[in-house]
Amino acid sequence: MEKNIPYDRLARFTEAIFTAMGCPEGDAVKAAEALLSADLRGIDSHGVARLSGYVRLWEAGRIIAKPDIRVIHESPSTAVVDGGSGLGLVVAPFAMDLAIKKAAQAGTGWVSVQNSNHFGIAAYHAMMALPHDMIGIAMTNASALVAPTWSRERMLGTNPICVAIPAGKYPPFVADFATTTAANGKLEILQRKNLEAPVGWIQDAEGQSVTDAHALKQGGALLPLGGDREHGSHKGYALGSIVDIFSAVLSGANYGPWVPPFPAYVPMPENQPGKGIGHFFGAMRIDAFRTAEAFRKDMDQWIERFRNAKPVQGQDRVLIPGDPEREFESLRRKEGIPLLDSVMEDLQNTGRKFAINL
Amino acid sequence: MEKNIPYDRLARFTEAIFTAMGCPEGDAVKAAEALLSADLRGIDSHGVARLSGYVRLWEAGRIIAKPDIRVIHESPSTAVVDGGSGLGLVVAPFAMDLAIKKAAQAGTGWVSVQNSNHFGIAAYHAMMALPHDMIGIAMTNASALVAPTWSRERMLGTNPICVAIPAGKYPPFVADFATTTAANGKLEILQRKNLEAPVGWIQDAEGQSVTDAHALKQGGALLPLGGDREHGSHKGYALGSIVDIFSAVLSGANYGPWVPPFPAYVPMPENQPGKGIGHFFGAMRIDAFRTAEAFRKDMDQWIERFRNAKPVQGQDRVLIPGDPEREFESLRRKEGIPLLDSVMEDLQNTGRKFAINL
Questions:
Q1: Residue B77 phi, psi dihedral angles, 5° rounding
Q2: B308 and chain A: CB distance < 8 Å anywhere?
């Protein structure tokens, strides 16, 4: 069962929790907005349902509420940021803002981040570039759930990439996707409903492709985009690896199987080579390539042409990346965020820790 | 049947053809090296087998042998290059070289290219960054063969992406892949042998997934990486779109279904919005992020850890992107490039046009 909660009520509650954890007020507001952007855009697995997880990481001392976020290396178009073990929801906007400032000066800005935590959805951060007439890019590594092609070991996170591109009269192009066949959130839905997973989503502990949605919890792994070698899983493996290297090897964060786990009860991997989890952000000023006006005109024509591509039978239209999420947001701003009873209960328990009512 | 031809002999022949077309000597040498890097690396579909296709484009006036390659827009970390309708094999190294020069100054360099032609394999260009202790990125759009998710129309090329990352004691990480489930070259092999294609590679003219390898030539389309919506084809569609937009909407080249076709006998699409085909290149100086020494140490550990990930039964090891191509190159430099009889014949016919013997 689920119930719709108005966005503002959920935002005030989330801010209050972050404030009670000790976050400075500006950070609490920013973090709540970043977290709930997932619920607005229909990515329920990455939104307020994870609030209690962030609180547990703070209780375990893995998240610092008042982090010392610092630039530790830079060039005209690049920087590395040490997130000071802060909330990724706060560290990531700091780093993306820096990328945007670099781009204003040098044409583009690229910021790799160490010593951070989970940052919510990549789209929130990449889209910060759009009002500046810039293309925004955001990616992050995450704890290992994914097996490389031909391996039975979990080595990579679902390592999402977002690219947000401004247009003229049309809404922006916003592609935000995990580099796996299916995101873990979709698998969790199947697990709850005891449904089978499609072939190509997961493998078991021996590395055999299976449809039992519970196999992931029994030593199995998610599969890279492509599913198997014949369908290009080596490409999904390469994409997830690029995200890992840009986010962590460039910054000095942990990579591969050493990335800190999200559940606070899971012990930290031993012999970690870096600090915290890593992100990577980019901003490219459109007019560092051509006039924003000329770009917008062509981008509008690109969108128009693809939206009008002939659909297959049974589909009324071809989508532009970002369409479904924008439709979710428009609906949920009006009608509220649907929360499962189990999520509501979890939020109420989290509120009780700080004497805050939802 | 096939026969091995020593690399040097093939390179001299290819240079002679480009020189006979009117390319300046330096350009002919560069273009031959770029083209044959595909044969060395085992990407037979993109190497010397395409030489006659380039010649036909030159005969049709679509490729200019002595192009006026110009920088038409720039910022400290970016530029747009007009390739002057030159060989992509010459234009792309010019643009990548510019990206490397920008990176030396600004930390990173990003170059979008209009008015170019096919550039061979992306890896050749991206790997130019490696000796400079930089990460190299190369991508290009190409004529439309790929249907977006839920469409029965060909809208995108196979739009490859290459990311080349230097390491320390180990060979570099080099991922170079089409953003489709399978590259067109692999499908052509099945067509020649009259074999069925795996589900998820292609669809027919109505947009139904089929296994008939000939369906592509009967109005069908290649499928984006993922194959269908349930297996993440919207992610492959997004990736191919990002390549198209970075390469062509940022530069003023043609995009989507307007990209010029490779076969010279196929008429140009009508109402083209831009000039030629588009590419996009990037170079990121490692020490714009952290010391090259610290990076190399972590990159070596990354490679070592992934190479030693537990393999599934029946596989003796997990590969690092770039491993298979490097093994091909090492073998073929020693033993020569295997050419099918049909390719040999095609090369001899091309040579005859210019009175050049293979």
A1: -115, 10
A2: no
The amino acid at B215: A
Determine whether the interchain pair B256/A108 forms a contact, defined as Cβ–Cβ distance below 8 Å: no
Closest CA to A62 of A272, A351, A354, A350: A272
Residue A102 tokens, joined: 């670099």
Residue A306 structure tokens? 């693809």
Residue B65: pLDDT band with limits 50, 70, 90: very high
- Whether residue B209 contacts residue B199, with contact meaning beta carbons closer than 8 Å, is answered with yes
pTM over 0.95, yes/no: yes
Between A and B, how many CB-CB pairs are < 8 A?
A: 260
- Chain B residues inside the 8 Å CB shell of A298: 249, 252, 255, 273-274
What are the tens digits of pLDDT across the range A301-319? 999 999 999 999 999 999 9
pLDDT above 90 (res B310): yes
Q: What is the 3-state secondary structure (H, E, C) of chain A?
A: CEEEECHHHHHHHHHHHHHHHCCCHHHHHHHHHHHHHHHHCCCHHHCHHHHHHHHHHHHCCCCCCCCCCEEEEEECCEEEEECCCCCHHHHHHHHHHHHHHHHHHHCEEEEEEEEECCCCCHHHHHHHHHHHCEEEEEEECCCCCECCCCECCCCECCCCEEEEECCCCCCCEEEEECCECCCHHHHHHHHHCCCCCCCCCEECCCCCEECCHHHHHHCCEECECCCCHHHCHHHHHHHHHHHHHHHHHCCCCCCHHHCCCCCCCCCCCCCCCCCCEEEEEEEEEHHHCCCHHHHHHHHHHHHHHHHCCCECCCCCCCCCCCHHHHHHHHHHHHHCEEEEHHHHHHHHHHHHHCCCCC
pLDDT in tens, A244-283: 999 999 999 999 999 999 999 999 999 999 999 999 999 9
Confidence category of residue A17, pLDDT binned at 50, 70, 90: very high
Chain B residues with beta carbon closer than 8 angstroms to that of A223:
none
Cα distance between residue B113 and residue A75, in whole Å: 25
Partner-chain contact B321 A234, CB within 8 Å: yes
**Residue B247 pLDDT > 90:** yes
A183 — pLDDT class (breaks 50, 70, 90): confident
Find out whether A101 and A285 touch, Cβ atoms under 8 Å. no
Side-chain-facing half-sphere of A79: CA atoms under 13 Å: 25
Closest C-alpha among A71, A164, A142, A141 to residue A111:
A71
| B286: nearest CA partner in chain A | A250
Q: pLDDT for A97-128, tens place per residue?
A: 999 999 999 999 999 999 999 999 999 999 99
What is the average pLDDT score of chain B?
Answer: 97
> Band of the pLDDT at A185, cuts 50, 70, 90?
confident
Of A106, A242, A251, the CB nearest to B106: A106
Domains of chain A (ranges, CATH numbers): 182-222 (3.30.60.50)
From CA A247, how far away is CA B282, in angstroms rounded?
A: 17
Q: What is the mean pLDDT of residues B208-224?
A: 95
Counting Cα atoms < 13 Å in the Cβ hemisphere of B92 gives 33
DSSP conformation class of B40: H
Instruction: Please name the member of B177, B239, B245 whose beta carbon is closest to the beta carbon of A302.
Output: B245
Residue A358 has pLDDT above 90, yes or no: no
What is the rounded distance in angstroms from the CA atom of residue A33 to the CA atom of residue A40? 10
As given in the structure block, the two tokens for residue A286 are 């459109």
pLDDT above 90 (res B185): no
